[in-house]
Specification:
By secondary structure, the protein is of the alpha/beta class. 44% of the residues lie in helices and 21% in strands. The chain has two domains: 172 residues, P-loop containing nucleotide triphosphate hydrolases (Rossmann fold, 3-Layer(aba) Sandwich); 154 residues, Glutathione S-transferase Yfyf (Class Pi), Chain A, domain 2. A hairpin with a 2-residue loop joins strand 1 and strand 2.
Length: 360
Amino acid sequence: MNVTKIELLNFRNYSKKTFDNFSNLNIIIGKNGIGKTSILEAIYLGSLAKSFKTNNESSVIKEGQSFYKIKITYFDYGPKKNLEIYYDKTGKKTKINGQMQNRLSDFISQYRIILLSPDELKLIKSSPNTRRNYLNIQISQLHKEYIFFLNNYNNLIKNKNDYLKKMMINSNLDERYLDILDQKIVSEGLKIYNFRKKYIDLINENINEIFCKYMPKQKLYIKYESDYEINDEEKLLKILKRNRKKEINLGMTDFGIHRDDYLFLHNDFSAKEYSSQGIQKLIVLAMKLAEVNIFIRDYDIYPILLLDDLFSELDTKNRNNIFKSLDKNIQVFITTTDLKNINKNIIEKAKIFDLDERVR
């Protein structure tokens, strides 16, 4: 999987710009604020149809303009493909090889992305919702049906919550509708639970080994916490039945995979509470590299790796360890403010895009 060309129109600070002739290893260098991360953001958008920088779609439109357009050309063991995203006040439109896509799910993950940026510390520091969203994105890149199950589950929870709110006001409403919803919620929830559990189990198969390359004789493990860990439909339905009065009083569903979380345990202690920021950076790095292994080893997929401002975050030894561990077939994009941060052997193998001057 390799991106060969990026065409930007009214995107961030780019009025009209084309980047092409990418190699397997690409280094984008330039001053802060010049648009290095925007290139990675465009690649990410081309895969997942969403930004990793913002949830406000209109904020990526260049100031003074009314739309943005991104066109990505890539190949994957066959003819090149063109992916287009166009966004204006009427919404988002996507095309594959010039053909309009009616469903976003048909567009996303034409190629796969793994991102490592300074903001990724939110996986440890932020809320369970942030961690769930990240997990959903990663699993969706490997299993398209996961998006379908997740959408079904979320719609069922919305319908149930709406009905629970009505029951707060009118206790005479028929509870049999809740029985029907609970049956469907448990069925869809178990599918999602099993996808999540499998993915975290796969990460745990080698995250500790990777982490020990950076922190010898340390221990790292991800603990998945879920109401559905019982993994038994009948027992889950009984719990929901017991909780019904409480949920009616709350006006919301208080039990389910929408409350899932996972914890990073460093030497058996919560990394969020006890690990330094430096250690937390290495934990996230180990997770990302473990995910690269999953994509290749378990799914025969070579993801595109985006490393945003990585070299300001790591020392020389750890930078070199990353490249020693990466498969040569992976396409990598690195942003940096200074080539002095990068090993000469890496520079010699890379295509350099100098935004301060010109492509070298």
